[in-house]
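Justification of computing resources. Each target in the renewal requires a structure prediction run like the one illustrated here; the chain below, 240 residues long, is used simply to show the kind of job we budget for.
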Amino acid sequence: MRPILSCCALLLSLAAAPAALAQSADDAGERRIMSSSAFLSGHPDLRYRLSGLDHFRKGDHEEAMVHFRRAARYSDKPSQGMIGEMYWEGTGVAQDKALGYVWMDLAAERAYPLMLAKRERYWNQLDADGRARALEIGPQLYAEFGDDVAKKRLERELRFAKRNTTGSRVGSVGALTIVIPTPGGTEVVDGTAFYDEKFWDIDQYVQWQDTDWKLHAEGTVDVGEIMSLDKPLPEDAQDD
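Resulting structure tokens:
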């Protein structure tokens, strides 16, 4: 696919999976790890984003919004961008361009080029009343979904999942191996690859995602194949 920067097309393509632009064997291994239920169960940002995208592609936009909002609570910028796009276009919700702008402003919080471009386009198309309303409702959304609070939620989830899976309070991997179901059978992954710090340390995890979005989400891009899950997504957990 070679999606062009317009409407939901590029957001849908790039939001489908982090590191979707993987080319090397190492990157392909990362994609297999990240598509596993074991990985997704500890990463609610990705789990809810993928579930939201699944519902969106099926045309179930109301349910997609529910899952995107859950992902957004864990600082998932692509999901926040999808919410902004849906409010702006009135997809599955009553059209609200001021609210759409605020969500896209949240999505642009880390200066991803795609989100910044959309945010500026939205602002330029708002009238004076829309801009005033956006400035009024913005602080309330930032108080719940901004990085200052949302990253802390995600950090707790990452730390809890790693500790419980490894059985160590400090998250020590030791000789742990992970068995991942694949379409061709099962694959055994060394624990050091599965528990690479860039997936579980909040600062490294965010930096890794930021690099991917800032490097690739400009203009026209090749996104490669959308990853397939080894099994259905886990049932949604109750939000904290």
